[in-house]
Amino acid sequence: MPMIIGVVAGLVLAAIIIVIGLFKLMWRVAEPNEALVISGSRHRTEGIEEGLGFRIVTGRGTFVVPGVQAVRKLSLDLNETELLVDCVTQQGIPLKVRGVVIFKVGDDFVSIANAARRFLDQQKFMGDRVHNVFAGHLRSIVGGLTVEDMIRDREKLTGQTRAASGSEMEKLGLIIDSLQIHEIEDPTGYIKNLAAPHAAAVHRDARIAQAEADRLATEAEQKAAARMSEATRDSEILQAGYQAERDKAAATSRQAGPLSEAAAKQEVVVQETRVAELEAQRREQQLQVDVRKPADAKAYEKRTLAEAERDVRISAAQAKAKETELAAIAEANRVKIAAAAQAEMTKVSGLAQAAATRATGEAEAAATQARGLAEAEAAKAKGLAEAASIQARAEALATNQEAVVAQQLAENWPEIVKAGASAFGNVEHMVLLNGADGMSDMFAKALTMGGTGLGLARQLLASMGTENGVSAVPPPASPNGSTPRSHLIPLQDDDQA
């Protein structure tokens, strides 16, 4: 019986051990940072359409049928890949962009399934794939930016790269935890040259600030040194003052004895000097009485006499001057009175002359006026007489012009003959070849010139009658028998004459 109990207990224990072994062989537990991918049977995972072909277990345990199902682990840990990408900017400047990408497999079953399909056996190459994805997008994005944009807005570069790579990383079942652009290398020195002006300005400001700080420090040091010198001087002055007081006190104490002796001697000298002064005063008083007073009396007498004589001379001179002044004033008054009398007399004489001149002028003006009126009357009478004569002559010309002309010629015949003979006035010598006949011919020619003058006078009268257009008297017969032209002589009115 005990043997049966032992066999039964052994069988039960063996069964328990077998059950535990089978449990441990079939039970798989996923760690927090991993996912179990179970394949080999039809499974349906929550949240994933049917037909996935494998089961994903995270954070818990599950039974796996050995030999029927296969269990593989997919790490959910963070992964990191360094980026070193050669890029060319929009300006054509080559750059090297350094960065780091931190990523992991997504926690959802879709991401785990995508990652399991792509990296389950190639998890160690996951970083290379991610590097390639980011390198391509980074080159594309850098090609659309300038260096200045990348430097001033690096977050923009990071954001665009992360956004562009997000969809592809999602397809790979990965999520980006962090993307950092650490450094932008510039092999051409463009960034360094770009920053050179700013660096120079900063360096300049730093030097100016350093110089200003040095100046302020120097001024502070100099002020401190001056204050130290001033304190030293005051201290030395005080010390010298104290030392002088000590020396003075010591000297005073040393000279107390000689000073007392000198003071006693001085007192003796003072008293002796006082006695000498009193003696001198006594002698002076004696001299005053014996010599000075009589001398002063004599001097006073002489001075008084001189002053009296001077006053006499001054009084005489003042009297003389006063007399001269009064005489000059009297003479001036006399001259002034005489000049006033002369001026008054001249004034009266001028007035009388002006009145006489005015009366004479008025008389002459009246006489001139009378003479002018008489001359005017005479001229008027003469004019009237001439007008009457001209009118009578005109009337005679109108009635018997030839007779009037003949009368005029007869009246002026001597002058005509004289004018004709004037041609011979400048002849110094005249030779007559035919005697008395030649003389007769010459005079006949002179008379002929008078006849020519008569013809000219008639032509003049004819031309005057033609211009005035009033002649209607028939011309007289010419000497050669031709009938002369008749003319009218215009007559002027009495008023016009």
List keywords for this structure.
497 residues; alpha+beta; three-stranded antiparallel sheet; 69% helix; flat; disordered C terminus
Question: Rg from C-alpha positions?
Answer: 84 Å
Count of β-strands = 10
Give the termini separation.
214 Å
Give helix % range.
Answer: 55-70%
Supply the helix-strand structural class.
alpha+beta
How are the strands of the biggest sheet laid out side by side? 3-2-5
Order of helices and strands: HEEEEEEEHHHHEHHHEE
Low-confidence stretches: 467-497
Total DSSP helices: 8
| Overall average pLDDT | 83
How would a crystallographer describe the biggest sheet?
3 strands, antiparallel
What is the beta-strand fraction?
A: 5-15%
- Tertiary shape: flat
Give structural notes.
With 497 residues, the chain is of the alpha+beta class. It is 69% helix and 12% strand. It has helices at residues 2-26, 109-119, 126-143, 147-152, 154-171, 190-254, 256-421, 436-468; strands at residues 27-29, 34-39, 54-58, 61-63, 70-75, 79-88, 94-105, 174-185, 471-473, 487-488. The strands form 4 sheets. The chain has a 3-stranded antiparallel beta sheet, with helices on one face. A 3-stranded antiparallel beta sheet has the order 6-7-8, with helices on one face. A two-stranded antiparallel sheet has the order 1-4. A hairpin with a 5-residue loop joins β6 (79-88) and β7. α3 crosses α5 (154-171) and α7 packs across α8. The radius of gyration is 84 Å and the shape is flat.
